Amino acid sequence: MSTIRLTMAQALLRFLDSQYISVDGTERKFVEGVFGIFGHGNVTGIGEALERSAGSLTYKQGKNEQGMVHSAIAFAKQRNRQQIYACTSSIGPGALNMVTAAATATVNRIPVLLLPGDNFASRQPDPVLQQLESVQDYTISATDAFKTVSKYWDRIVRPEQLMTAAVQAIRVLTDPAETGAVTLALPQDVQAEAYDYPLAFFEKKVHYIDRRPAAEGAVKRAAELLKGKRKPLIIAGGGVLYASASQELAAFAEAFGIPVAETQAGKSALPWNHPLQVGAIGVTGSLAANRLAQGADVIIGVGTRYSDFTTASKSAFAHPDVQFVNINVSGFDSSKLNGIGITADAREGLIALQEALTQAAYRTSYENGEITELKQEWDAEVDRLYAAQHEDGLAQTRALGVINEGIDPSSVIVCAAGSLPGDLHRLWRSVEPKTYHMEYGFSCMGYEIAGAFGAALAEPERDVYALVGDGSYLMMHSEMVTSLQEGRKITVLMFDNHGFQCIHNLQRSQGSDGFGNEFRYRSQATGGLTGEYMSIDFAAHARSLGAKAYKVSTAEELKLALQQAKQESVTTLIEIKVVPGTNTDGYESWWNVGVPEVSVSSKVVKAHENMKARIEAVTII
């Protein structure tokens, strides 16, 4: 057998460079490149390999380890999980900075390969700088923290172990039912150790992602259930987009006249103006979708994992005989809510179920114009909110209306946390698939700008906008620098509402007077954070990094700034002053949160009683 002598790090890169993926007959490289921040633990191992023997893999310099992984996640999400970046870090804090992002990937079922440096496998220099010493188990290191947030985890303590670990890592990364964060912990000495690797290990490998077909028996059971139901509702999740099944979803809905609601991950699967598209579902849902959900006798979930925001903490479905049919490539998700599971690719499942229901001459029993009337009422409500005026300044919903109408329909918007996801889910009018990029599985603050950069890497032909609150911006804006470094423009729409206003609203709705969530100066009179709002010049900050920047406080100024930003050639920030509390809320939805049973505040006790009553009214599924 022919061999080649390489260090473990060199072999890893060579292996990654030879991995390909084939979907529906289209073949492409699976690993685009490597994000990295170097330190001891990876600079002389994988760092040397990237410098001198990276092959066709491109290197991107991250500015924050969490941020660079978020960029890699967004890249993979925008590429429908068919291409990835790997991410490498030093040991200790560099590695641990990636843990939050690893969870973000795993929760959202997005593939990302993490290559953190690790302690010396030989233990001879122990304890090295940044090493975590566990007195009860000396085999534990900082990288063990990745175990709970990874779909596959391994530590390479001998160079030949790479051959087994790398194959298993790619298996998980390319499996649409199992994918998420994959972590290969790389001890810094082992990265530099050499081994005679078989050349066969580096031969081009094509991973064929065959669409999982729907089992005949599962389709038959689902069709039998649906034949007895008259008011179905489809909930379209992210799996519809990952399976490129928007056309099949539309065909299925149109064949039987079934309304379609959408999760955060599934939004844009159907255009907003499709006659059967009734908008967002659940806690951040539209009035049309939530009312249809309350009366639905069967829910057809396609590619959704049924988060508590989707189900309104299981209160969204009020029909006494409601049942569930779940089409999902993951058996874990297709079995949820005690539903009849069709464990299949979303496209294949929709096609098979449509054929079975057509043969059964299935018909729904929605009254003439019932769906249309609800949709028209909601469209009018969106129009009202988009035009809303506020005496104190620019309302957040008005700003979103200006943006939605002012940017190209093919542009990609990226968001993750705060009050913006609720408003965007309810109000944003998506026309084309994959133009609404929301990370709401983990709703990780700080994803927005890094995610926008990743989306721009994935789709350089589109304009990409990061919609971010001032709270998330302050948490993480570092990859804005990387976008400038790489010449990959993004436009950051930064909403300044003086704090963590989303949680401030939730807090006050449950009896609080408001505490610790606004960006105010400490008051000498009260001793608390109750003074004047802090004045932060975000536009000046962006300019100091090298970006272009504008400040706006009116709808007219925002319209002009959007036009000007469109003409800029580099990353641009628009600082948008909005009135706190001018976001949307309610629309016959509910969210179960813990409220203290005992408090010195009568308002809190009352809120607890109200919450308890709502919990008792929910049928646990």
From TrEMBL:
Residues 417-576 form the Thiamine pyrophosphate enzyme TPP-binding domain. The keyword Hydrolase applies. Residues 219-353 form the Thiamine pyrophosphate enzyme central domain. It is an enzyme of class 3 (hydrolase). Its EC number is 3.7.1.22. The keyword Hydrolase applies. SUPFAM superfamilies: DHS-like NAD/FAD-binding domain, Thiamin diphosphate-binding fold (THDP-binding). It holds the Pfam family TPP_enzyme_M. One of its GO terms (molecular function) is 3D-(3,5/4)-trihydroxycyclohexane-1,2-dione hydrolase activity. Gene3D superfamilies: 3.40.50.970, TPP-binding domain (3.40.50.1220). Residues 31-131 form the Thiamine pyrophosphate enzyme N-terminal TPP-binding domain. CDD domains: TPP_IolD, TPP_PYR_POX_like. Keywords: Hydrolase, Thiamine pyrophosphate. Belongs to the TPP enzyme family. This is 3D-(3,5/4)-trihydroxycyclohexane-1,2-dione acylhydrolase (Decyclizing).
